[in-house]
């Protein structure tokens, strides 16, 4: 498997922490971030960088099935890291309100829906990163 899942996970965590800090800074100025940005931007960032590294090491694009398998593994990393982070967010006002008002089955469905979105983002931007990396190698 050409994707380094540990590096991807570290990149994703770093981007997630950066998004959290950016959200806190923007909140001080009364500016909010778009709702889905913190969900989509970290896997986008990590997948592009991992795709560039794959292009530099293999010097060839990934086949369709291999790309999907790698994107699914990357999404699995996001799922595991999200579950590990959950205790940090469990008692925040927004999550506590969601736990009280939304049934658990719906919260689980939302989590699965977000993982499906992240799978698509990983697949799309892994391929984009590989294309960028191959383009750099040609120059």
Which spans have pLDDT < 50 for at least 5 consecutive residues?
A: none
* Radius of gyration, CA atoms, in whole angstroms: 17 Å
Order of helices and strands: HHHHH
Number of strands: 0
What is the terminal separation in angstroms? 27 Å
In helices, the fraction of residues equals over 70%
> Count of helical segments?
5
Strand proportion, as a percent range, falls in under 5%
Q: Helix/strand-derived class?
A: mainly alpha
Mean pLDDT: 90
Name the shape in a single word: globular
The protein's oligomeric status is single chain
| Biggest beta sheet attributes | none
Architecture overview:
This protein has 139 residues and is an all-alpha fold. It is built from five helices and no strands. It has helices at 5-28, 37-58, 64-89, 93-101, 104-138. α1 crosses α3, α2 (37-58) runs parallel beside α5 and α3 crosses α5. The longest helix has 35 residues, at 104-138. It is globular, with a radius of gyration of 17 Å.
């Amino acid at each position: 498997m050409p994707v380094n899942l540990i590096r991807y996970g570290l990149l994703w965590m770093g981007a997630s922490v950066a998004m959290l800090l950016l959200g806190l800074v923007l909140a001080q100025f009364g500016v909010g971030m778009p709702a889905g940005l913190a969900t989509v931007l970290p896997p986008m960032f990590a997948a592009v960088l991992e795709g560039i590294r794959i292009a530099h090491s293999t010097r060839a694009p990934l086949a369709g099935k291999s790309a999907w398998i790698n994107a699914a593994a990357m999404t699995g990393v996001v799922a595991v890291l999200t579950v590990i982070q959950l205790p940090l967010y469990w008692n925040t006002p927004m999550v506590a309100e969601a736990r009280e008002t939304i049934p658990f089955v719906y919260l689980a469905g939302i989590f699965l829906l977000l993982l499906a979105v992240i799978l698509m983002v990983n697949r799309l931007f892994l391929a984009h990163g590989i294309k960028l990396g191959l383009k750099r190698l040609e120059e």
